[in-house]
Amino acid sequence: QVHLVESGGGLVQAGGSLRLSCAFSGRNSITYAMGWFRQAPGKEREFVAAVSGSGGSTYYADSVKGRFTISRDNAKNTVFLQMNDLKPEDTAVHYCAAGLPRTARLYSASGTYDYWGQGTQVTVSS
């Protein structure tokens, strides 16, 4: 069982930055890949970014490449999502998730992830 708690969401103007944090706990949790997903009102949940258990591999949705950076600090049991140059279309509830993807392709699939946090709201005003 892995427990996840997100923080760091809020309201920011377009072009601004936010850093989301996800504190994780549980047996063997540092071995899990961690992903960030988001869901806007009336839309399906979509992949944002993911990082392998070691932190050595990272994956991004095309819509956030060059603007967002995912990282993890296993000594502090925390995953981060640094979001720069935010746009109104980034407005959504952002979720942290933990899973064990077997291939690189599966890092972006929500079905890969077994554990989810409660989500944190990110709102970007124009």
Question: What characteristics describe this protein?
Answer:
globular; 50% strand; 7-stranded mixed beta sheet; single chain; 126 residues; 4-stranded antiparallel beta sheet
Mind explaining what this structure looks like?
The chain is mainly β and 126 residues long. The chain contains no helices and 11 strands. It has strands at 3-7, 10-13, 18-25, 33-39, 46-51, 58-60, 68-73, 78-83, 92-99, 113-116, 120-125. The strands form 2 sheets. Strands 2, 4, 5, 6, 9, 10 and 11 form a 7-stranded mixed beta sheet that branches. A 4-stranded antiparallel beta sheet has the order 1-3-8-7, with no helix packed on it. A hairpin with a 6-residue loop joins strand 4 (33-39) and strand 5. The radius of gyration is 13 Å and the shape is globular. The model has no long low-confidence stretch (mean pLDDT 97).
In short:
The chain has about 130 residues and is mainly beta. The protein has strands at about 5, 10-15, 20-25, 35-40, 45-50, 60, 70-75, 80-85, 90-100, 115, 120-125. The mean pLDDT is about 95.
* Rg calculated over all Cα atoms: 13 Å
Please outline the major beta sheet: 7 strands, mixed
Measure the end-to-end span. Answer: 40 Å
Strand proportion: over 45%
Helix/sheet category: mainly beta
Give me the number of helical elements. Answer: 0
Give the beta-strand count: 11
Q: What percentage of residues falls in helices of 4 or more residues?
A: under 10%
Low-confidence stretches: none
| SSE succession | EEEEEEEEEEE
